[in-house]
Amino acid sequence: PTVLPAAHEPMLLLAITEFVANSAAFAYFTAGALRRNISSNMLPRRFPLQLRTKSMGVFSPQMQERYPDQPMELHLSARRQPLLSCHPDALHGALFSSAEAFVVLPNATRVPAFLLNIDANVTGKPTITGNRLGGTPCLRRGPLCLPHAGLMGLPVPQVKRLETLLKFGLWLFGVPWANSECCPHPVP
Questions:
Q1: 3-state secondary structure of 26
Q2: Which of 9-13, 37-41, 137-141 is predicted least confidently?
Q3: Would the pTM of this model clear 0.70, i.e. be above it?
Q4: pLDDT, tens digit, for every residue of 1-10?
């Protein structure tokens, strides 16, 4: 239960409960809408890990030897329904996803390279400044990659390196992108 603020002037109050948000997440997950394919040309050139076998050779030299400097694709999908919880100071989300990497051969055939299960905890703090609605997403501490869950061809120490690089890339590019693309938006 939330106490509504006193209305001193005309205003619109919009409230969304955890039930509504989690029901929407369930519907999207059940419909298969929580999927995204990322190809090598979709990443910024400055991103620390390019989707090419040459870049992934650090983690799997056999892949670079077998498929020298070939493009790769990353297929991201939700393994479970995302969960959202509302708190007075922030919104907390738990994401349960998998990332399957493929080598793209010259004839467009995709060869499976490895599979990572990625779990992330995200916190977003909504802000209102003047007539602008904004927010600040951030990753909370905890393991990002789960190497024991369905990994093909990468030893655990290499997965830890990949996890460190992914976290760095998310902090360097993902969170700033979310801040710039998602927030702030003008409030009419």
A1: helix
A2: 137-141
A3: no
A4: 567 777 778 8
Task: Mark out the alpha helices in 14-155 (DSSP H runs).
Answer: 18-31, 53-56, 61-66
- What's the residue count for the chain? 188
Residues 6+ apart with CB under 8 A from 175: 137, 138, 139
Rounded CA separation 74/114 (Å):
10
Per-residue buried b or exposed e for 105-128, using 16+ beta carbons within 10 Å of the residue's own CB: eeeeeeeebbbbbbbbbbebeeee
Lookup result for tokens 């995302």: 82
**Listed residue (9, 88, 101) closest to 55, CA to CA:** 101
